[in-house]
């Protein structure tokens, strides 16, 4: 189980870094028109938060006391994904493609957070 969780954490960290890089190079509206309600400063701040979360997902591999950060980082990423879903639907968009993707990522984050906090803690 520990190896499986590490694989998921690394994949989620890579996914999150790619999302952050995308945010630095594209506006919210370019990403998804329904996200145009997000100001550019907040969009860039989200990119910074995502980079920090990605680091927190893999930092325990190098520094064991940082293990407490894994569930926190996974929860933060899940909240961002759920926020995107809420903004998408509040904008009146009924397309389900992107929200399903965001919900899958949020569910993966919830699983990692629960597993590292309860089932297989690192520290």
Account of the protein in words:
The chain has one domain. The protein is built from 5 helices and no strands. The protein has helices at residues 2-25, 28-31, 40-58, 69-90, 97-119.
Offer a few descriptive terms:
single chain; 123 residues; mainly alpha; 5 helices; 75% helix; 0% strand
Can you describe this structure in just a few lines?
The protein is mainly α and 123 residues long. It has helices spanning 2-25, 28-31, 40-58, 69-90, 97-119. The protein has one domain.
State the total count of DSSP E strands: 0
* Inertia-based shape: globular
Question: Number of helix segments?
Answer: 5
Head-to-tail CA distance between termini: 15 Å
The helix-strand sequence is HHHHH
| SS-derived structural category | mainly alpha
| Mean pLDDT across every amino acid position | 92
Overall helicity: over 70%
Q: Please indicate the count of domains.
A: 1
Radius of gyration: 15 Å
Largest sheet: none
Unreliable residue runs: none
Percent range for β-strand residues: under 5%
How are the secondary structure elements laid out?
Elements: H1 2-25, H2 28-31, H3 40-58, H4 69-90, H5 97-119
Helix pairs in contact: 1-3, 1-5, 3-4, 4-5
């Amino acid at each position: 189980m520990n190896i499986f969780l590490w694989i998921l954490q690394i994949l989620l960290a890579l996914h999150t870094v790619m999302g952050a890089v995308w945010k630095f190079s594209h506006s919210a509206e370019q990403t998804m028109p329904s996200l145009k309600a997000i100001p550019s400063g907040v969009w860039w701040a989200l990119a910074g938060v995502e980079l920090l979360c990605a680091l927190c997902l893999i930092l325990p591999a190098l520094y064991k006391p940082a293990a407490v950060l894994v569930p926190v980082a996974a929860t933060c990423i899940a909240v961002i994904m759920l926020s995107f879903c809420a903004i998408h639907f509040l904008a009146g968009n009924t397309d389900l493609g992107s929200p399903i993707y965001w919900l899958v990522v949020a569910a993966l984050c919830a699983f990692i957070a629960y597993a590292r906090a309860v089932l297989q803690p690192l520290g």
